[in-house]
Amino acid sequence: MCMAREPKIQLGKNRIREFREGRGLTQEQLAEMVGVSHATIGRLERSAQDCKLSIITRVSEALGMSVSEILEDPSTPDDPYAGMTNVERLIELIPTLTDAEAKVALEVFRAMFLIRTST
Questions:
Q1: Do both 91 and 47 map to the same domain?
Q2: 17 burial level (CB within 10 Å; 0-12, 13-18, 19+)
Q3: pTM, whole model, 2 decimals?
Q4: Residue 11 near residue 48 (C-beta atoms within 8 A)
Q5: What is the 3-state secondary structure (H, E, C) of 24-80?
Q6: Domain co-membership, 64 together with 91
Q7: Does 15 share its domain with 64?
Q8: What is the tens place of the pLDDT at every residue in 10-40?
Q9: Domain check: are 61 and 92 in the same one?
Q10: Residue 31 burial (10 A CB sphere; 0-12, 13-18, 19+)
Q11: Where does residue 72 rank: exposed (0-12), middle (13-18), buried (19+ CB within 10 A)?
Q12: What percent of the chain has pLDDT over 90?
């Protein structure tokens, strides 16, 4: 029987170290809780290795956090348009445009419309 390989995810910037240290845990202690080596925890904290989803799930459970909290980039502000469709986002942005920006946006929309109707 052939088993499918578990997909890996690229961690990118993450908050594993921040949450581990906030709970007073060493890399060794977290590694033991998760069932991996402390070197693996170090590589995950530095985003130096792709990670199986099952491992990041076990890390988040050990730290009492959700996977999304672990992977959240704290340097990016919350998206005020989260949960909106792209059309809703555009509608929200229109009143904030300067006249010059609105002119450019209108030209872009016209060009998109021409391309869409000509294909």
A1: no
A2: middle
A3: 0.57
A4: no
A5: CCCHHHHHHHHCCCHHHHHHHHCCCCCEEHHHHHHHHHHHCCCHHHHHCCCCCCCCC
A6: no
A7: yes
A8: 677 788 998 999 999 999 999 999 999 999 9
A9: no
A10: buried
A11: middle
A12: 25
Confirm whether 1 is domain-assigned.
no
Percent helix, strand, coil in the chain, to 5, is 60, 5, 40
Average pLDDT, rounded, for the chain: 81
Token pair, residue 113, equals: 């419309």
CA distances from 90 to 10, 75, 84, 86, 110 (A): 30, 24, 10, 6, 15
Q: What type of residue is 78?
A: D
* Bridge partners for 9 per DSSP: 51
With a CB cutoff of 8 Å and minimum separation 6, the contacts of 14 are: 44, 45, 47, 70, 71, 73
Query: Which amino acid, residue 80?
Result: P
- Work out the end-to-end distance of the chain between its first and last CA atoms, rounded to an integer number of angstroms: 48
